[in-house]
Amino acid sequence: MRFRLAAILCALAVPAAAQSLQVHGFLTAREIYVKAQRSWTQGGFGRFDVGAQIPDDHRNVNVEIAQLGIDWTPTTWMLIHTDGIARREPSGTIGKRAGMLQGFVDLHSERWRFRAGAFWLPTSRENIDPLWTSPYTVTYSALNSWIGQEFRPLGADLQFSPNFYITLGATAFRGNDTTGTELSDRGWTFGNRLTVYNEGLPQAGEQGTTKPIAHDLDGKNGYSGRIRLQLPERAMIQFTRIDNRATLVPKVHGQTPWLTKFNVIGATLGTTGPTTLAAEWAYGGTELAFPGGRFKMDFDTAYVLLSQKRGADRWTARVDRFSTRDHAKSDPDFSRENGHAVTIAWLRDVREHVRAGLEYARVKGDRPTAPDPRTGGSTITAELRYGF
To answer: Which of 63, 109, 235, 375 is the most exposed place for a label (fewest CB within 10 A)?
Structure first.
């Protein structure tokens, strides 16, 4: 109690000129034509956030999303941030309609930054706009669609930048013990749906849900480390290692931990120019224990994105590839999948705060465990977004 009172008094003692409060967000409406089987968000094996019923069927759906973020800077060396989301999705979608995405405190100087709370790791080369959105496409890559669904540290991050050219970072986190469940269950997907805290996600073809971003199950810290090299305003490359260090036991509080370790290598050319080339490659494995044994699955995915901004218009093309496979190389391998995707997007700044867009995405890939293994498909998305 004394500590809280002291903190409040310190904040009140700061001159008003040194404080700032900013509110920002997006209101987004999307009309989506989808040709694909039932979505993973409804317990199916479809690779998009929305779907029809069978692979050859199509459907028109609407999705509305509201995102809100608040930044409070009580002093020049402190930032307090929180953001959340509310959404209206097709009937039958499993999960929360609203919730918190991030909530953290930053303490920073010229070279150091300490962050504590719930936050995105700074790995993505496409989700670089406020509130972890993309300036390039409506549908995220397979890698960042998965991260948006299953991985968000709840912990502390320390970052050191001794000069303009190198940045080092280390993270200790909890609350991601089931990361890997969705990926092993139904494979890679493509979308922009972000999991909120303590949200239950459906498991394809099964009853029940998994909670990838929730309270810790085993009382152990996960760890991450990264190194970034950059030429300011020209290019950068970053290597990140992530290990959730989950305990391999069959069940904890009704949830199954998955020991997930993976690396992410990302690079960008033309960080501030009209033409941007970005790429990421992630590879690793996820493992679980069951009575009498263990199962481990290897995975990898990569994408290359090329974007051109001309006046109010931005054109972007992205190519993805993805795969999963049994680490033991069993035959038959029911976890094996290989696929690729192409995304083409046109985004236009209609007014200062209004963005319109049209996007085509096509995914090819089979999933052996699905009732119908043809889990690919296509979407055409029209979007209108108001930012403030």
So the answer is: 109
The residue segments making up the domain with residue 113 are 19-387
The 3-state DSSP class for residue 5 equals: helix
Q: How far is residue 345 from each of residues 13, 380, 385, measured CA to CA in Å?
A: 49, 10, 15
Neighbours of 146 (CB within 10 A): 25
Instruction: Kindly state the tokens that stand for 190.
Output: 């493509």
| Angle formed at CA 39 by CA 33 and CA 40, multiple of 5 degrees | 150
Partners of 103 in beta bridges: 82, 118
89 vs 151: CA distance, rounded Å: 22
Q: How many residues does the chain have?
A: 388
pTM over 0.85: yes
> 147: closest CA among 192, 103, 177, 113?
192
The percent of the chain in helix, strand and coil, each rounded to the nearest 5, is 10, 55, 35
Going by their DSSP bridges, the two strands 235-243 and 222-231 should be labelled as antiparallel
Identify the sign of the CA torsion 274, 191, 286, 153: positive
Q: How far is CA 268 from the centre of its chain?
A: 18
Q: Is residue 1 part of a domain?
A: no
Decide if pLDDT at 197 tops 60. yes
pLDDT score, position 178? 95
Strands (DSSP E) found in 119-197:
154-160, 166-174
Q: Tell me the per-residue pLDDT of 239-275, one tens digit each, with 9 for 90 and over.
A: 999 999 999 998 888 899 999 999 999 999 998 889 9
Q: How many domains does the chain have?
A: 1
State both tokens at 269: 């050319």
- The pair of structure tokens assigned to 196 is 């909120």
Indicate which CATH number applies to the domain containing 346.
2.40.160.10
Please check whether residue 3 lies inside any domain of the structure. no
Q: Beta-carbon neighbour count of residue 3 at 10 Å?
A: 7
